[in-house]
Amino acid sequence: MFYLAYPTAKGLAKVLLQTTPDSLFNGVENRLREIRQDPNVAAVDRIHFWQNTYGQCVGTIEVQLRSEADEQATLRFIYQKLEGLTSNAMVDGDRSELTVSIIKLA
């Protein structure tokens, strides 16, 4: 019985603890590295990607921009880089989400 219940319990615990799915982890790191290389980006903080329900991922990220940076262009760049990590497709009537907070340094 334990043999059958363990994988289910482990998967459910990962969802409840809002952990980054193993399938997303390398993709997130690679894309964050690309975002950090943008000359307009001063820092990337508070990164959290997790699975809300099976197949639906949610992500939040805080990006600090240099004072001379174009906010809209950089925001478009960030969304393009992170596109696909949280699926834009409808999953059981709910959309996956990606929230990007922009802080412009003085």
TrEMBL record:
Domain of life: Eukaryota
InterPro entries: Msc2-like (IPR045316)
Organism: Apophysomyces ossiformis
Gene: TOC-1
UniProt entry keywords in alphabetical sequence: Ion transport, Transport
Family: Belongs to the cation diffusion facilitator (CDF) transporter (TC 2.A.4) family. SLC30A subfamily.
Biological-process GO terms, alphabetical: intracellular zinc ion homeostasis
MF-aspect GO terms: zinc ion transmembrane transporter activity
Name listed for the protein in its UniProt record: Two-component response regulator-like APRR1
GO cellular component: Golgi apparatus
